[in-house]
Amino acid sequence: MIKLVSFKTLLKGVGVLLFLIVIKSMVFFKDRNQKNDWSSEIKSYNYAIGTQTVGSKYKFTDKSMLVETALEIKKMGSNLLKFSMHPRYCTENYGLPKNDKIKSLTQLASLEPSVKTVLDMDFKFYHIWTYGFSQYTPELPGEKDDTAQIKFINGYPKSYQDALYKELFEFTSYLLKTYSGTGKVFYLGNWEGDWHLRPDYDRTKPVNPKTLEGMLQWAKIRQKAIDDAKKEIAHNNVEVYNYIEVNLVNKALKDPTAKVVANTIVKKVNPDYVSYSSYDATNPYKTEESLKKNLQKSLDYLEAQLSPKEGLPKGKRVWIGEYGNPSINYSDKVQNLRSIWTIKASLEWGTPFVLYWEMYNNEIEQKTGEQVGYWLIDDKGKKQPIWYTHNSFYNESKDFLENYFQKTGELPSFDVFRKEAIHFKSLNPKI
Fold first, then answer.
1. What pLDDT score was predicted for residue 10?
2. What's the whole-model pTM score?
3. Domains and CATH numbers, the chain
4. Distance between CA atoms of 256 and 359, rounded to whole angstroms?
5. How far apart are CA 71 and CA 93, in angstroms?
6. 187 with 125: CB under 8 angstroms?
């Protein structure tokens, strides 16, 4: 005999069922939202290794050189983009269309479509070689003079100092306002500073005292403009920092009396960060042990030139802005292996970034017309072993971060990450 259920009892049962469904939904959405939160954090985590795009000699699409290479960097798995912003945007590095309305860094960022596109792309970290339009004297067609975009050679006129401060303050303010709330971090700096201090590229000659004093003022103004803009402009969840790049460290290690950017400009300015174009500490050495020893010695020297500074994230303030092993000198396999040596030595020391030179090659051998081979993707579109090392490293990093979060409920500190990363399979290939 079938027992009939009362309407009241039925409603009660439905109510309990609905209650359970609601509770389960709340747990589901909480878990999903929590996953979205840490997935976003993993996406924006500092993976330390990265690359850059400057002056590439080939491309494969109808997009601009800058946009194409930025997309390739993104597809490789990186959340960091290093590129250049300066008055030569239309003649050097990217060959972008000239726009007579662009007369400042802020206008370059806001009016040049390719520059705006990459700044708006989903990168967390930006390293930008930044040179003011107010400092530029156009070269003759077909000529290139690096001193055309710096005005402190043999002294730094006050009018140029004032113009630099104004332009860089304005540009920093633009970045803070435009990208407030995005989580982006901008590092504004210079290309190899020791070649600015010695513009004839002769490292054997003594430094011109007037150029040294001029460069010191130039570097101080760059730091002050960024600092002042950060104090004055309301912003949230966006950062802008100043860095000075150096490249002649071994010279000072061999001769402590030698004047280089590290022991003069860096020491007196105390910038937020120092970038090291590290060829003099990497390329001469034939074994992993000797490279590691000399690179870490140089990094120790650079860190010693800095003084404590408030308002900066915890950790080391010196990074590898450039390293590379051109294929004209090395096989693909050795190019990859030597790059891994540099990455591991840098991570062990604690550098926040290790940036490979570069996505597409930028140098042509003059006598033969051969590609020098500073590349992750060659001129035929072939991904090199070092490309796969980067790509695998990013995948391993994300797996490690996800597993770490699931076990601890939080993401690891950078120190925990870098110490683990040294043991990733991507950095320990079978020879």
1. 47
2. 0.92
3. 47-385 (3.20.20.80)
4. 36
5. 16
6. yes
